Amino acid sequence: MNPATAPGTLHRPQGEFLDVALSAMPPEEREGYIERLEAFVEQHRPRLEEMLRTHGPGSTPASHGRYALVGQPETLVILERMEAVPFLLRGRWEEELETVFLADLEFVWGPRVYLGR
């Protein structure tokens, strides 16, 4: 098996995922974002831990090559944006990236607004 296509590996540079997630943040929301992200993590800590346990690296679903973003640091920003501005995130994502990565996160996270098709 090619190491670049091994289950659990990303097929795109990680920066692209973070760039797209951050592009779904209006400029007026950028100030104080670190504090809001920290609050998001604290609020959802049990849910994040469960997602990592069930679908993160070493899990059965991840061993099949899915859920590549679960466990990646940029996923916190993606999930926060998924909760805050789901339609904007989906639109930006569809312009730049393969939707399977976002769809996998939506499935595992169970956002308040599901945008998958």
Describe what this molecule looks like in 3D:
The protein has one domain. It is built from seven helices and no strands. Helix 1 packs parallel to helix 5, helix 1 crosses helix 6 and helix 5 packs across helix 6. 25% of the residues are buried. The N terminus is likely disordered.
Which keywords apply here?
single chain; 117 residues; disordered N terminus; mainly alpha
How would you state the average pLDDT, rounded?
85
Which band does the percent of strand residues land in? under 5%
> What order do the helices and strands follow?
HHHHHHH
Number of DSSP helices? 7
Number of strands: 0
- The value of Rg in angstroms is 14 Å
How would you describe the shape? globular
Straight-line distance between termini? 31 Å
Uncertain segments are 1-13
Helix content: 55-70%
The domain count comes to 1
Structural classification? mainly alpha
| Main sheet specs | none
Please outline the helices and strands.
Blueprint: H1 14-23, H2 33-43, H3 45-55, H4 60-63, H5 75-84, H6 86-96, H7 99-109
Briefly say what this structure is.
With 117 residues, this protein is an all-alpha fold.
